[in-house]
Specification:
alpha/beta, D-Maltodextrin-Binding Protein, domain 2, six-stranded mixed β-sheet, 10 strands, 29% helix
């Protein structure tokens, strides 16, 4: 099973210089410096799409910091524990990720870059599994929503079980076999 869509991520950072034009008090932030040893925070575990977006933007010479929530990503950047954070803001199939938009309105962090990923969802099963024998699907709620049409058409009797991150759902699947 393959299901494709695009996912947009913003890189966030604290402001580093002020641009004032005719009473405009917005902050201008620019990406500066080399990528080596940049600390980049993202929500999820290793293997998450946000990690892929960070590596695509900065390259491999970065220190990746996993976070439990979007709020923790923002806190790490605000507290200077991370140089940058990366947050998903939009998905071509399910739309805006409102929680992230709300966070960016409440925090004094700014978007300094954008990454658009082509996301491909795959169904992971034990080798030799017959497609008709699949009874449960574990995944992130966003991924489940993105694949809803496929599941309803091809696996209508499957139990859908949401997990916070895709890598976490795979780990859980391995534990219950």
């Amino acid at each position: 099973m393959k299901n494709y869509n695009n996912k947009t991520h913003f890189l966030i950072k604290e402001p580093i210089k002020r641009k004032e034009n005719k009473g405009d008090k917005r902050m201008e932030v620019k990406y500066q410096g080399t990528n080596r040893n940049k600390r980049v925070a993202f929500q999820g575990e290793r293997g998450a799409f946000s990690e892929m977006a960070a590596v695509r933007f900065f390259g491999n010479s970065i220190d990746l910091l996993t976070c439990r929530s979007f709020e923790q990503v923002c806190q790490m950047v605000s507290n200077h524990e991370a140089d940058y954070g990366i947050l998903p803001v939009e998905n071509s199939q399910t739309g805006s990720i409102n929680k992230v938009h709300d966070l960016l309105l409440d925090e004094s962090l700014f978007a300094v870059g954008e990454v658009i990923l082509k996301v491909e969802h795959c169904l992971i099963v034990k080798e030799g599994t017959d497609f008709r024998d699949i009874k449960k699907i574990y995944s992130h709620p966003q991924a489940l929503a993105q694949c809803e049409g496929y599941f309803s058409g091809n696996l209508p009797s499957c139990q859908i079980i949401p997990f916070m991150t895709l890598p976490e759902s795979v780990k859980n699947d391995q534990r219950i076999r």
